[in-house]
Write a structure and sequence with these properties.
globular; 7 strands; two-stranded antiparallel sheet; about 140 residues; about 25% helix
Length: about 140
Amino acid sequence: MPPLQIGVYEENRLIKSFISKDKTSEALPSLFEKILEDYDVKSIIYAKGPGSFMAIKIAYIFLKSISIVKNIPLLGADSFIFNQNNPIKALGNLHFIKENGIIRTQKIKSNKESSLKLPQFLDKKIFSLDSKPLYILPAV
């Protein structure tokens, strides 16, 4: 399971990062308690998928709740922004890929997972107020 990463940005530049290998449901509350205590949060930006269905769902519900309670805008972008448009593991040999702006699944035999990374600089133009999660795979 890839680690949860949270970045704090000032004038679009990464000034602090937090990394946790705990489950998303356990890491988010403790990390955000510290972030909201130490920083004046103006907006929340997250990778809305594709990726782990449960991690995306938990992150969205948690971040949307903070957004509503604290009146902070929640912005989202697809996960490919954070991994230089490399395939993202889905299930088995299936990976999510993005070609010509379309996200789909494709069988890839490589075990190499492309990890997401916090950018040093944020281009806020690539993020949208449409923060609903991208659930690409149908329910089984």
